Amino acid sequence: MFESEFAEDPLIAQLRCFLSACRFIEVVDRTDDLAAEPACSASRARWRELLRLRLTALVVLVRYAEAEDACRLVLESAEADDDHMARARVLGYGLATAYFLGKTEEAVGRLDEVLATAEDMPAGPERMSTVAAAAIGSGMIGLTELSDLLLSRLVEQVATAPEGVVPAGIVAFLHALMTTRRCQLAIELEQREPAKSASLYRSVLDLATKIGVDLRGERPNGSLAARPAELYLAHLCFAKIAIGEAAEVEEIVRSVSVTGVVEPFDAVGATTEIMWGLCQLRIGLEDGAIDPARWGCLTDRLTRLAHRTRTLVLQAETARIQLEVTRLGGDPLRCAAVRERYEAALDELDWTARLERARFAGLRSRTMRDVVRRIAG
What pLDDT is stored for residue 213 in this prediction? Predict the structure, then answer.
């Protein structure tokens, strides 16, 4: 994202542009034929960066086993060359591969290492890039509050940087990413303490206002690619609906075609589809205009999509909406089954439980120690 290294390399520059535009399949296709690790140290550094970009795309495509293979190759190579920067950057996404492959303690350890490394790095593009990767990775595994904290710090740094130092596209991307993460944090809070979530939803909209974004998601500089811009707009509309201002976005929401099907699948496309579907369902439930027979199929599809994304907060929210729609259908057996799934999703959403063991892990980073102290209460 902020990388200055390899900026002149045509392939790496192209792959970075593909990632910014959420063109993940192209990234994987262009790196399918990577050769074995080169003998030359300079070539090895480039090889590691190509593998890191491949890993990033594989994670979003939910191809975790392949992503972990790429992560291990980079880690082994970086260790042999004493390349701490490459190790830290790859672990930002590598923590997600470990977590989704069931290696929770390793995921926490990787996150701790990334943050500790970033804390000791001098200010600059490399540190920002490392923190951004940690923010994205921690958000993917359900540590939404930590992700929001890291992104907030990044946005503050970018805001105080001299004009022109940080490209407009990166600023817009950071704001969009922070908006989606904070909206997910608000959804998570709404599941537990609905009365306290309104101010967080409002902060999502306040953030958009500060950077000059209207309800069509349009920016003066048009610096976001179409797919991330659409994801961003869906979260803005959801926040509006959540605070009772659905009338302002209803026309936008109803104009979107939602099928609950995303093929070829990737987490960005699926999250966008889920958010638009949730927007439509929330409006319909508020208006009393939901036909259980028609909308039940969509809620089933959205729930399945949420499970494929492995995003805990989306699993809980789609299950909650599915339960509301199912209740309208009047089938007590189906209602009981959906309620059970919803309650299981809520249990899984309790991200603090997944860090309990970390308090004994000899954490290195100040940020992680602060998180654990808050858990211990």
Answer: 56
Q: What is the Cα–Cα distance from 259 to 267, expressed in whole angstroms?
A: 16
Hey, is 117 helix, strand or coil?
Answer: helix
Q: How confident is the model at residue 371 (pLDDT cuts 50, 70, 90)?
A: confident
Domain boundaries, the chain: 9-126, 291-363
On the question of a cis peptide bond just before residue 10, with omega within 30 degrees of 0, the verdict is: no
What secondary structure, in 3-state letters, does 187-207 show?
HHHHHHCHHHHHHHHHHHHHH
| Cα R_g (the chain), whole angstroms | 21
Say what percent of the chain tops pLDDT 70. Answer: 93
Instruction: Name which residue leads in pLDDT, 7 or 344.
Output: 344
Tell me the two tokens of residue 237: 């509309």
The answer to whether 281 and 295 have CB atoms below 8 angstroms apart is yes
The Cα–Cα gap between 106 and 347 comes to: 22
- Give the separation between CA 46 and CA 150, rounded to whole angstroms: 27
Split at pLDDT 50, 70, 90, the class of 220 is very low
- Residue 80 burial (C-beta neighbours within 10 Å; 0-12, 13-18, 19+): exposed
Q: For the residues of 50-96, what is the DSSP string, one character each?
A: HHHHHHHHHHHTT-HHHHHHHHHHHHHHHHHHT-HHHHHHHHHHHHH
CA distances from 50 to 15, 73, 372 (A): 8, 11, 34
Q: Kindly state which CATH superfamily the domain 9-126 is placed in.
A: Tetratricopeptide repeat domain (1.25.40.10)
Q: Where are the alpha helices (DSSP H) in the chain?
A: 10-20, 24-30, 41-60, 64-81, 84-100, 104-120, 125-140, 144-160, 168-192, 194-210, 226-242, 250-254, 267-287, 292-309, 312-329, 332-349, 366-376
- pLDDT at residue 211 in the model: 61
Are 368 and 118 in contact, with CB atoms under 8 Å apart? Answer: no
Query: Average pLDDT for residues 57-79, to the nearest whole number?
Result: 97
Give the separation between CA 184 and CA 181, rounded to whole angstroms: 5
Question: Residue 372 has which token pair?
Answer: 């654990």
